């Protein structure tokens, strides 16, 4: 096999989904590793160190949640979970455990491929001392705690800036309500989604061109928020 190919591990107990994803990903130049259960997935991941993992949540035996939790003890490879629509709680739990993204079955192959490219690209970016984010008229200086919209400074409260800062640092990732509340307000606020929605609404009014049609802070219904940069 070509050692220069990005390796993607597909974990799903459905043989048809494994076959379909293998064909789609192989055609785009990826090296595809297949696992039909959690134990097999962990063994392959430890031996092959894939660039990304596509993980089904609903598997017999060791669940996708178990796999996700175990992987995050030693691997930082992006994890994209696959979830059926009525398993929203499991989907949120996986993201809270460290998964990076999710798609609901049935999913669009084109969207899956786009997300794979974005996650692999972000994972390969070398960390730097740059602390300024700029995109489409928005500038966020993380070190100076300053925000500008179309050249004009935007005044944010301390909480609003902390919220924006966390979203920017996790650009492209789905961040759940629980994680945002815990990181910005503290663990005791984990269930207070109303407080979070109010602050997100206020933040959108200050940084979005049209708060009702946001371009930066996107809502993932029932899950959380995703900060969208133009290179995602």
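-> sequence recovered:
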């Amino acid at each position: 096999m070509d050692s220069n190919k990005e390796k993607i591990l597909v974990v799903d107990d459905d043989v048809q989904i494994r076959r379909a994803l293998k064909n789609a990903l192989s055609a785009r130049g990826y090296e595809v590793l297949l696992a039909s259960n959690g134990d097999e997935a962990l063994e392959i991941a430890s031996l092959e160190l894939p660039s990304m993992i596509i993980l089904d949540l609903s598997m017999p035996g060791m669940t996708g949640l178990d796999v996700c939790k175990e992987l995050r003890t030693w691997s930082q490879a992006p994890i994209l979970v696959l979830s059926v629509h009525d398993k929203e709680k499991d989907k949120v739990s996986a993201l809270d455990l460290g998964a990076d993204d999710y798609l609901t079955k049935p999913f669009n192959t084109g969207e899956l491929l786009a997300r794979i490219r974005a996650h692999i690209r972000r994972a390969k970016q070398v960390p730097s001392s740059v602390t300024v984010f700029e995109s489409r008229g928005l500038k966020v200086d993380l070190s100076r705690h300053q925000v500008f919209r179309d050249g004009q400074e935007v005044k944010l409260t301390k909480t609003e800036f902390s919220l924006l800062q966390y979203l920017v640092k996790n650009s492209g990732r789905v961040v759940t309500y629980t994680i945002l509340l815990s990181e910005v307000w503290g663990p005791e606020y984990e269930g207070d989604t109303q407080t979070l929605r109010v602050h997100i609404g206020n933040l959108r009014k200050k940084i979005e061109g049209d708060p009702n049609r946001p371009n930066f802070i996107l809502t993932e219904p029932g899950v959380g928020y995703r900060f969208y940069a133009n290179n995602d």
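The CA atoms of residues 10 and 21 lie 8 Å apart.
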